[in-house]
Amino acid sequence: MFSELITRAVAQLDNELPFVVYRKPNKTIVHSVFQKDAQLHLVDDFSESGFVFAPFDSDNQAILLPAHEVLSEAFIKKNNQSANKTIKDVDQNVQHDFYTELVKKAIVEIQNGAFKKVVLSRKLEVECRTLPLMLFKKILATYENAFCYLWYHPKVGLWLGATPEILLRTSGLRLTTMSLAGTTPYVAGEIPRWGNKEMEEQNMVTDYIVNTIKTRVDDLNLSETKAVRAGNLWHRRTEVSGNLKKSGLSEVIGALHPTPAVCGVPMASTKAFLLENENYDREFYTGFLGELNIQENLFEHNGAVRQTAANKTEAEKVTELFVNLRCLQLVNSIAQIYVGGGVTRDSVPEKEWQETVGKSKTMLSVLFDQ
C-alpha cells in the first residue's frame, strides 16, 4: 500500500533524517531513498551512488543521499483527483516592476553583444499550512507526465517539485539528454503556436548541447523537435543521444550544467549576469536531481520492496538526472516558489512577466487548488 511509504517518509521527517520520495514521468511507481543518519554527504566526482541534489551554482558541491534503504510502492490516483482545477489568484505585482526592468536590462546587454540569451528568474513567497507529504501526494495526482519529488535534509531544507526536463540519462555508456525551451500557454483543443522568439530560444539550447557534448560522445543523434505539454504550458523538445567516451559522467555533467535552458548563452557571461542582478540566491532551483549510478535492479516494480546494501546484486548502473524546474522550498509555514523564463533580443518585458506568472501556477495549483 502507498500509505506504508508515506508513513515511512513521515517518520524520517519527524526524526529529522534525510530522505527523498519521487516518481518518474508517466509512471505509477513511487520510489524512496532513506538515509540512516543525518550526515551531510557531498558529491566529489559523480562516481558515487545514490540520489543526488545539485544547486544551480556549479561552483558549489552537490548533495548525495546514499541508498541505505529503499522502498517502492504504486500510487494510484483517485477518480476525484483531477488536473483541471481552479487556482486561487495570488497577487504577484510587488515583483512586477523589478522583473520587467531586469528583462529590459538583459535585452540591452544582448543588443550590446554581451550574450545571446539569458534566463531570468524570481522567487515569490506565500503562506502554506499543508503538511509536506500531503503536498507531495497532490503533486503526484496533478502532474503525471513530470518528475515529481519531495526531498529533505535537516541541514539543507525541504524541497518539492514537478519538473518536465531531463538533464541526462545514462545506461552503461549510452547517454541521452534533451533540449527543452520555448514556452507558450496550453489551450484545450488548440495546437501550440510558436513565434520566432520561442523557436530561436530552443534552437540556441539545442546548438549549445550539441556543441558541448559532440567531442565527448560517439554516434551523436538528434530527434525531431516536438511540442510537449507540462501542466498548463507547451514547450519545444529535441532529444540528443550518443555513446559516452572515456571522459566519463563527471565531465559531461560539468559541461552541460547549467544549460542554456536555465542560464543562458554563453554560460559564463550569463551566469555572472544572473548572480549579480537577480537579487536573490537560486539555491537548488535550476540545479538538478535524480538517481546517480543506481544499480538497475535496485528498485523492483512489483509492489513494496525493500533492499539494503547487504542484498544488492550486481547489475548495470543507471543515472537519470532532472533539471529542478517548477519547484518550491518549504521554510516553516512559508512556501518559496521559483519561476523564470528565457530572454532574447525579441523578448517583450510584459510578456516575459506573464510567462513567469503562468509558470507559477504549477506550484500554486498544489497549494491553493479549489
TrEMBL record:
InterPro entries per UniProt: ADC_synthase, Chorismate_C
Domain of life: Bacteria
All residue ranges annotated as the Chorismate-utilising enzyme C-terminal domain in the record: 98-359
Pfam families noted in UniProt: Chorismate_bind (PF00425)
Stated name of the protein: Isochorismate synthase
Taxonomic source organism: Kriegella aquimaris
